[in-house]
Hints:
Structural class: mainly alpha
Oligomer: single chain
Number of strands: 0
Helix content: 55-70%
Low-confidence stretches: none
Distance between the termini: 46 Å
Amino acid sequence: IQAALDLIAAKGPAGFTFAEAARSAGVSPAAPYRHFRDRDALMADVARQGFERFEAFLTTAWNDGRPDTMTALGNLGKAYLAFARTEPAYYSAMFEAGVPSEDHAALRLASDRAFAIVRKAAEALCARLPQDKRPPSLMVALHIWSLAHGIASLFARGDAGRRKLPMTAEDLLEAAVLIYLDGLGLGG
């Protein structure tokens, strides 16, 4: 796993072979087959571990919506960006490796658990609106996730893929979410 993370950091999630990961780990080319069916299984396990770490980041940041929903939402966004910045190899394995989660049950479960934190935040936001004005919380969760993910991928990565921005990624995300929430009637 560590060899794969090192290679992902150096070459990206598609930039190395299974045999190269074995060499990097200092084992024979056949040794990884004792633990992983193939390279996809290795990448799925790296991504699973990444999603488990990501879930912990998000859970801590959301803090069950405390001290209030808007503050907790801001903390959630900052945690998303911090994860992309501090764990770029995991982030790449999770979102860029192209491993289909439907083929790896543990990966799918870990991914779903991480997204569930964003969904809880969206449900708390939607609950602040009158019942007849509430958008579907899943849609709100997907919008917020897309904003955070896009900004993280473009501006908050901890690797050479990061683009320059005349403000912090956190400020950009906060502004985008505030505009979005204002459009939903949750501004102010």
